[in-house]
Automatic annotation (TrEMBL):
This is PhzF family phenazine biosynthesis protein. The lineage of its organism: Bacteria, Pseudomonadati, Pseudomonadota, Gammaproteobacteria, Chromatiales. The keyword Chloroplast does not apply. Belongs to the PhzF family. Pfam families: PhzC-PhzF. It comes from Rheinheimera soli.
Length: 264
């Protein structure tokens, strides 16, 4: 069997910026090694695969793969999936279900708005920082799924020098460095060499940790977010006690669409 593999730039409304992703709508789940082979050949930061749920026209099962392994709760892969469903079915509210949780995206042609879970620091599981990270002179740190270093300012985040060998040895999923930039913006960088992504361009799941933290620190409920990677990407988040909402856009790259085999 074959399926169409579509390509998108996410966290942007411009074809030459944002975070690249691929997505395929499948009728069934192939073997994991087939999905991994497709993702490896696609050579995108992430490839998302979705399968419709019977008798639930707005619901899909979803899995995400980097070039080297399956990953969990990928925001930008989910946004690519929502952009694909919007392209094929039109505007709507779509749910994407995985073994790591459910994500909901309201997909209009003007924007993609995703509901994300909120992850809070767990003091009882606080970790000791490796000496090399202590040398970064962070003003705070905490862990959720990821290890988060809070630095003094935007310049410190921009100038942070990642040691990928060290980061790969961390027990957490990834390392995030962040700082607040007055009056309404926080910045970040995201490093995940354990899953084959040395530095991500734009990371939806990072906001699950950062937005609750900065809400608690500043009292603000709406933030502009800038990820200080080499490629321009932008989005906004709004937070309250019940929901975390991320809003952005995605651009289809039709010239890259191609057929892929879904059987070994």
């Amino acid at each position: 069997m074959e399926a169409q593999l579509y390509f998108f730039n996410v966290f942007t409304d411009k074809p030459k910026s944002g975070n690249p992703a691929a997505c395929a709508l499948l009728s069934y789940w192939p073997a994991p090694d087939v999905l991994q082979a497709i993702a490896s050949e696609a050579k995108q930061v992430v490839t998302a695969f979705i399968v419709p749920i019977a008798d639930a026209p707005s619901q899909y099962q979803i899995r995400w793969f980097s070039c080297v392994q399956e990953i969990n709760l990928c925001g930008h892969g989910t946004l690519a999936a929502a952009a694909l469903v919007r392209q094929l079915k039109g505007e709507g509210c779509y749910q994407f279900l995985s073994q790591h949780g459910e994500l909901e995206v309201t997909a209009s042609f003007a924007a993609l708005q995703m509901i994300l879970p909120q992850w809070f620091a767990c003091p009882e599981t606080q970790t000791e920082l490796p000496p090399a990270l202590l040398a970064c002179q962070s003003i705070d740190y905490f862990q959720t799924r990821d290890l988060v270093l809070v630095l003094a300012d935007e310049q410190a985040v921009q100038q942070f020098q990642p040691d990928f060998a060290l980061i790969q040895q961390l027990k957490q999923h990834a390392l995030i460095v962040t700082a607040f930039s007055s009056p309404d913006t926080y910045v970040l960088r995201y490093f995940a060499p354990r899953i084959g992504i040395n530095e991500d361009i734009a990371t939806g799941s990072a906001q699950c940790s950062l937005a609750p933290y900065w809400f608690k620190k500043t009292g603000r409920t709406e933030f502009k977010v800038r990820q200080l990677s080499l490629t321009d990407a932008s989005f906004s988040v709004a937070i309250n006690t019940q929901q975390l909402l991320l809003q952005t856009q995605a651009v289809n790259l039709p010239h890259l669409t191609r057929l892929v085999a879904t059987t070994a």
